[in-house]
Amino acid sequence: MDNNGSSEQAKAVEIRGVSKSFGSYQALKPVTFDIRENEFFTLLGPSGCGKTTLLRMIAGFEQPSGGEILLRGADIRGLPPHKRRVNTVFQSYALFPHMTLSQNVAFGLENLGWAKERREARVADMLRLVHMEQFAARRPQQLSGGQRQRIALARALAPEPEVLLLDEPLSALDLKLRQAMRDELRTLQRQTGITFVFVTHDQEEALDMSDRICVLGDGEIQQIGTPAAIYEEPSNRFVADFIGETNFLEAGVLSVDGDNATVSTPLGVTLSAPQKRAAVGGQAWMSIRPEKISLPARPGQIAVDGTIEGANYLGGYTYYVVDTGAAKLRVSKRNAASRGRMFEVGQPIKVSFAAESVRILGA
Amino acid sequence: MNAEARNARWNVLGLLPAQLIMLATLIVPVGIIVLVSFSTRGPYGGFDYVFTTAPYRQILFNEGWTGELEFNPQYLIVVARTMILAAATTFICLLLSFPVAYFISLQKATAKMLLIYLVTLPFWVSMIVRVYSWIIILGNDGVIAKTLHALGLVDNMGSLLFTDTAMLIGLVYSYIPLMILPIFASIEKLDPALVEASHDLYGSRLTTLRRVILPLCRPGMMAGSILVFVPCLGAVLEPILLGGGKTMMMGNLIQLQFGAARNWPLGAAISIVLMAAVLVFLVWRGLRAIRRERAEAAA
Q1: SS3 A251
Q2: What is the C-alpha to C-alpha distance for residues B279 and A208, in angstroms, rounded to an integer?
Q3: What is the tally of helices (H) and strands (E) in chain A?
Q4: Distance CA A346, CA A351 (A)
């Protein structure tokens, strides 16, 4: 699938200069971006970044302080939530406790005035889609968290919304279930072909499921792109820091040549690497991801001397902290062999990395 | 003795004070009333411990000189009037309380506290004074009559006071806080996300009120209805002060038997019938709730 797509792709939602203030506090500075038809689009950011506010404005629960929101080309400003062809999967699921599961799923269809037969067929289809058909007569209180989650999905998908909004729907589930639901959500999105707008603060979830991610921070868009682009080519320090883990070392910019910059680093080496927003004389950081550092050093790479200062064994991986004197580097090493070569704390060691794995990020 | 059995014994002992209080304040007094209701009327009030079912018979029948029984609907009319007034009061309270409670729940925390305090404020004033104040409002020279007259709307409307309507107004006024508070509590417990979910699923305001908010506030409405209906059955002040003593409710009837009529056993018998009626109603509701829960658990 072509995730980058062309700009000619149909747009499901257009956010144009939308901002939101609560009193004197600006929760969201004016933002502009498009969400394409049939894509799994994720709004990712730490709490308080404005992602939920943005979602609630698309749903109609909040009104933007400025800007306009277009749904399939039509301005939906001022439309109440019940007149917008979008449905929401709430963080707490918000299933109606006084209704059975099939009544819950039928609720939206009844309000849309679907005829009884068509409605019942749709409810049965939806319950089958989320593998809950045998529980149709139960009530939400009798379900587990994962089951409630599925019913919330079925209920929101039943009226065939133009866009499905998901507000941190996995945060209430335990780890194993969360993993399973990720796959299920992705499958559901492909099966139904409905545009998903997913809000989360969990970067792993975002990377796993999304076609495109919009990273929000401090009420602003930090970067929009595919998971790989966001991880590998972060546009600034915030994104590099928020998505995954990385080592930041303050760097002195010697020269900038297009997409590359030459910097001097505290590791005592001068290197040339892809840059974003770097300027000669300006503040900049070199960023190198823990898994991109080789331990022990590989020939042909930039090598640095150090000692192992700490080791965190995490099953599949071990995280080492390597003290190079000038800086401490976090290095992850896959525990490939059943008895992989473990390094001892205090052991002197050489680590290495390739210059092209380094990113230079300006302030 | 194992730990569990020892615990069970302590549980019984620990509950003893509560049970003693229940015994002394609830079971013994009711027992005395039952006893009186099966006793013979004393010549100057009071009662003699001579077993008879006559007081219960008297509720429905007059006993002639020769011992023949003649059907007497008078007390039954009082019972019916009491039931109707109590039901009407409950219904009106229900209609008025929901918007009030909903309005309060929409306020900010401090305003909410203040409004709830205002709702309970009348309880700080003596019930007699509060009911009395309605005489001033409803009377011939009262606020309503004078205002309507001054506006030239009504020339001579006749007194609102000393009518069943006046009693009803008094009852609604007296007991409405008992309806507002539980409904408010149930609205407060309502998850705002459920209201949003209803709007999100194309439910208009009216649909949301009818299909989500009202059904979820039913427990509060039920609790409020019981809290209003039951004391209404025993209301005494409103009929005397606002009904002018012309029409009686069960409370007045009972008071009359213990007072002027000096027929304690009959008063006790009517009390027992009243309590039994309330008990039957509450047990029926309780059983229905249990049945519904079971049915849901089985689904």
Answers
A1: strand
A2: 61
A3: 8, 19
A4: 14
pTM metric for this prediction = 0.82
> Strand B69-71 and strand A328-334: pairing?
unpaired
Of A59, A100, A138, the CB nearest to B200: A59
Q: Which has the closest alpha carbon to A294: A335, A333, A246?
A: A333
> What's the gap between Cα A243 and its chain centre?
8
Q: Mapping DSSP to helix (H, G, I), strand (E, B) and coil, where does residue B132 land?
A: helix
Provide the terminal-to-terminal Cα distance of chain B, rounded to the nearest Å.
41
Q: List, by residue range, all CATH 3.40.50.300 domains of chain A.
A: 11-237
Q: The complex's ipTM? A: 0.86
State the DSSP code for A362. Answer: E
Class of domain A245-362 (CATH, top level)? mainly beta
What are the structure tokens assigned to A122, written together?
Answer: 């749709």
Distance CA B158, CA B142 (A): 11
Residue-wise pLDDT tens for chain A (363 aa)?
444 444 557 999 999 999 999 988 999 999 999 999 999 999 999 988 889 999 999 999 999 999 999 999 999 988 999 999 999 999 999 999 999 999 999 999 999 999 999 999 999 999 999 999 999 999 999 999 889 999 999 999 999 999 999 999 998 888 888 888 899 999 999 999 999 999 999 999 999 999 999 999 989 999 999 999 999 999 999 999 999 999 999 988 999 988 999 998 888 888 999 999 888 887 899 999 999 999 888 898 999 999 999 988 888 888 999 999 888 999 998 887 766 557 888 889 999 999 999 999 987
Domain ranges, ordered by start, for chain B: 23-298
For residue B134, give the 3-state DSSP assignment.
Answer: helix
Chain B contact present for A169, CB below 8 A: no
Least CA distance to A165: which residue of chain B? B200
Inter-chain contact A159–B202, Cβ cutoff 8 Å? yes
* A296: preceding bond cis by omega (within 30 degrees): yes
Letter string b/e over residues A220-253, b meaning 16 or more CB atoms within 10 A of that residue's CB: ebbbbbbbebbbbbbbbbbbbbbbbebbebebbb
Q: Where in chain A is the domain with CATH 2.40.50.100?
A: 245-362
DSSP summary character for residue B202 = T
In Å, how far is A82's CA from the nearest CA of chain B?
4
SS3 state at A94: coil
Give the B-side interface with A, CB within 8 Å.
191, 193-194, 196-204, 207, 211-212, 215-216, 296-297, 299
Fold entry, domain A11-237: Rossmann fold (3.40.50)
Which DSSP helix (H) or strand (E) runs through A176?
A: helix A175-192
Is 1.10.3720.10 the CATH number for B23-298? yes
Q: In A66-93, which positions are buried (b, 16+ CB within 10 angstroms) versus exposed (e)?
A: ebebbbeeeebeeeebbebbbbbbbbbb
